[in-house]
Write a structure and sequence with these properties.
- With 259 residues, the protein is mainly α.
- The protein is 82% helix and 0% strand.
- The protein has 13 helices and no strands.
- It has helices spanning 6-53, 57-70, 74-90, 94-107, 112-124, 128-141, 146-158, 162-175, 180-192, 196-209, 214-226, 230-243, 245-255.
- Helix 2 (57-70) packs antiparallel against helix 3 (74-90), helix 5 packs parallel to helix 7 and helix 11 (214-226) runs antiparallel to helix 12 (230-243).
- The longest helix is centred in the N-terminal third of the chain and has 48 residues, at 6-53.
Length: 259
């Protein structure tokens, strides 16, 4: 039929079957190869976590970078990017941290933790408008993520938006009364709003939680001066003389401006 006898048909049929077998073997081999690559990526993720936990950040960067290269699928790539960003941030490599967190955020836009760390990195880079955008997003996505409010308050303070800083730091303090950063942010905001008596109260709460906080002693000294209690400010000056002489000199200038 059509110039093809039964023998020709068998040959063609066998060739088709052989081609199908070759294709299936290739697919199976590719699948096995991807499985092996995924296992290798997972192992690098494990090693990165161990290094991060041991505070060996350079090793963590190495392992998470390898995991990102090997990653099979968005889940592994997200975890690798998130881990890499965290390790880079600890090493103060803000450019590398931001690139990694941007990728993590792109892979999981709704993941509040990655959004928080991206915003924090932007704040530390001085890109305050971008930082506020991401930090507000993180706080909205996860109302339980108090650190997003704290970081947002710091960013607002750097923008001199002290009313906003007071609002979010107060909310963070109400959620976690023992959160030192939240209390300190609130105290600083109140000071800049010229509400010195309230600032004194908050700075003293910070010092109850962290008696060695140089920033709190300095802030309390300033707030006391402007609240009209220079004598009490001298106690803070004595602490700073022993622990932060440059801040002591600055506070001294406020206590004795005529000097």
């Amino acid at each position: 039929m059509g110039g093809m006898d039964r023998k020709d048909g068998l040959i063609v049929g066998r060739a088709a079957v052989l081609a199908l077998v070759v294709m299936l073997v290739a697919v199976a081999t590719e699948g096995a190869s991807r499985d092996e690559q995924a296992k290798r990526a997972f192992r690098q993720l494990q090693l990165g976590y161990v290094a991060l936990d041991a505070e060996d950040y350079s090793a963590a960067v190495e392992h998470y970078s390898a995991a990102r290269e090997l990653a099979v699928g968005d889940e592994q790539r997200f975890n690798a990017s998130f881990g890499l960003g965290t390790a880079a941030m600890e090493m103060n490599d803000l450019e590398a941290a931001r690139e990694a967190f941007e990728e993590a955020h792109a892979l999981r836009p709704g993941e509040a933790g990655a959004t928080l760390l991206l915003g924090t990195t932007c704040r530390r880079q001085g890109e305050l408008d971008t930082a506020v955008k991401y930090l507000a997003e993180a706080a909205a996505r996860d109302p339980e993520l108090t650190q997003a409010l704290v970081e947002l308050g710091i960013a607002y303070g750097a923008q001199e938006r002290h009313d906003d800083a007071e609002r979010v730091c107060r909310e963070a303090s109400e959620r976690e009364p023992d959160n030192v950063e939240a209390r300190l942010g609130l105290a600083v905001a109140l000071y800049h709003l010229d509400r010195y008596d309230e600032a004194v109260v908050e700075f003293r709460i910070v010092l109850e939680l962290d008696p060695d906080s140089v920033r709190a002693h300095f802030g309390l000294g300033l707030a006391l001066v402007f609240a009209g209690d220079r004598r009490a400010a001298m106690d803070e000056l004595a602490f700073l003389n022993q622990n932060a002489p440059e801040l002591a000199d600055e506070l001294f200038g406020y206590i004795y401006p005529e000097g």
